[in-house]
Specification:
The chain is an all-alpha fold and 534 residues long. The protein contains 21 helices and no strands.
């Protein structure tokens, strides 16, 4: 009975550990998640740089699964290429070894200090208080590990159980246990931390612990494999490379590890330290090997998945180059402006098509495109904030400000499209289906809006100056007619789709206003070119 109580206490402590680790990762991502994504997105074409970035990000958020899922999401959004993502995946495995080192060297004794400091910081009414929860959960993670250690310590007095646990088991069985448990808790840090605790307590020998943490490397790929579902070919390549890298590393190094199992104790002063050092050395060695073979490795992944087709053409992302001539920058930004407008038009078409057809794949495609524009918007804001510092005269300042204003209107147009998209999401959550008369109104409004998009885009390409007054007339008439059709529907309490139509009409009117304002702002640029200073 006493053994059962000890095991219950141990399981409870493990649950607290998992809870703390998940919340710590979540808090860190909420504080700096966007910065992490931007850091990953700007990984250069050099795999070693991606490897370092992946290791550092994972060391901070303490989740290789989270890093790999972020990388897959960026590849899926088109802001990170498959080849650039591979180094990040390799580095994630190294970054997750930090937890093992902290536990092995018993630095978890400082856990109460972090818990108290985090709690106190969260009570302060200052900007620093946002770090309170992350510091609290950081201490909570290692406090839970201490709790696991103290809970399981009485098991040392059970000779029969000790003999079973310490006795070497079949390495493939231990590998499978580590893989399955990690896939279940979706964190290799949990498996590795527990293995080191068991080793510290003398409940597990290195012969059993080493295959378990190697199996954890395979189990942690489960999250990435799940995340790749319904993603395009490039994202699937990243997820598959994560799986093949972890499995391949285990298959390559496992025979050598088994042959030298009696020498593993030399890696540290204690079994726990030796295990943590092995964890670090194994991941570094596997990463170094695959970095050296990255070209044939990526070719293998591409051969397995195939080229596939991108679900949408990605836009040009501006890169600030101080030495570039302003006129070249201006010409490129003008071209990007037209491309962005065309992309937004297709976004609007996809969103309205999802409302009319109710197809799930169209809605998912719309969500991906909208997330992509959210990323693009941040890139352009960062670009303009840097480019403004390179302006040398009044002419350049005037042209750059005009471009920034027009881009800002395009992103406001995106906001209205996103509002319409969110209306569709609300409809899905509330199981609202549009009846035929409402669908007809939606179709007429969307057709008129797409026609206005076409007119503005054609004017931009041809440089034909302001839009004739007759161009937006069809959309204004469609909006007025939609409002008239809406009144009897709102009076009918049975028609749940009337509210959805109200939102659609409201956001469509805002969208039309922004489109016309953008067209008016673009008219001087289309009609004339600024003369160069002499």
């Amino acid at each position: 009975m006493e053994t059962v109580q000890i095991l219950v206490a141990g399981v409870t402590a493990v649950i607290l550990f998992v809870f703390g680790l998940e919340n710590f990762s979540r808090e860190i991502e909420q504080i700096s998640g966007e910065r992490f994504r931007r850091t990953l997105a700007h990984a250069t074409r050099f795999p070693v740089v991606g490897f370092i970035i992946g290791a550092l990000v994972t060391a901070v958020i303490q989740s290789s699964s989270a890093t790999s899922v972020i990388a897959i999401g960026l590849v899926n959004a088109g802001v990170l290429s498959f080849k650039n993502s591979v180094g990040i995946v390799f580095g994630a495995n190294v970054g997750t070894t930090v937890t093992a080192q902290l536990v092995a060297f018993k630095l978890t004794a400082f856990a109460p200090v972090f818990i108290i400091a985090g709690f106190a910081l969260s009570l302060l009414r200052s900007r620093a208080s946002i770090f309170g929860k992350s510091i609290f959960y950081f201490g909570f993670v290692f406090f839970s590990l201490n709790l696991i250690s103290s809970s399981l310590q009485p098991l040392q007095n059970e000779p029969g159980l000790m003999q079973y646990l310490v006795q070497p088991q079949h390495p493939l069985l231990a590998l499978l246990v580590g893989c399955a448990f990690t896939a279940l808790v979706q964190s290799s840090s949990v498996t590795t931390g527990l293995a080191i605790i068991f080793t510290q307590q003398g409940l597990m020998g290195l012969e059993n612990a080493v295959p378990i943490i190697m199996g954890a490397n395979i189990g942690t790929t489960a999250t990435a494999l799940i995340a790749m579902l319904n993603m395009d070919a490039a994202a699937k390549k990243t997820a598959l490379s994560h799986f093949l890298f972890n499995v391949g590393g285990v298959l390559i190094f496992l025979p050598a590890v088994l042959s030298w199992s009696d020498q593993l104790h030399r890696l540290g002063d204690s079994p726990a330290v030796a295990l943590a050092n092995f964890h670090l050395i194994f991941n570094l060695a596997a990463s170094a090997l695959f970095l050296l073979l990255i070209t044939p490795f990526t070719r293998l992944v591409e051969a397995l998945i195939g080229e596939g087709k991108m679900d949408f053409q990605r836009l040009d992302i501006p890169v600030y180059q101080p030495e570039e001539a302003f006129d070249e920058v201006h010409a490129r930004l003008e071209q990007n402006l037209r491309d962005l407008l065309a992309f937004l038009q297709e976004n609007y078409n996809q969103v309205t098509l999802s409302i009319e057809s109710n197809y799930r794949n169209v809605l998912d495609s719309s969500a991906k495109r909208i997330d992509y524009i959210n990323f693009i918007e941040k890139e352009y804001l960062a670009y303009f904030s840097r480019a403004v510092g390179s302006v040398t005269d009044e002419r350049e300042s005037r042209l750059l400000l005009a471009l920034f204003t027009r881009y800002d209107y395009l992103f406001q147009i995106h906001d209205s499209i996103e509002d319409i998209f969110n209306t569709k999401r609300v409809m899905n959550r509330q199981y609202i289906e549009l009846e035929s008369d409402v669908l007809l109104v939606v179709r007429e409004l969307s057709s008129a809006t797409l026609a206005l998009f076409d007119d503005i885009h054609d004017a931009l390409i041809q440089g034909s100056g302001p839009l004739p007054e007759s161009k937006p007339h069809a959309l204004m008439a469609a909006l007025d007619e939609a409002n008239r059709d809406l009144l009897p529907l709102l009076a009918d309490t049975v028609r749940r789709d009337a509210g959805a139509l109200t939102n659609f009409v409201t956001y469509s009117r805002r969208l039309s206003d922004k489109l016309l304002n953008f067209a008016r702002l673009s008219a001087p640029a289309m009609h004339r070119q600024e003369p160069p200073d002499t």
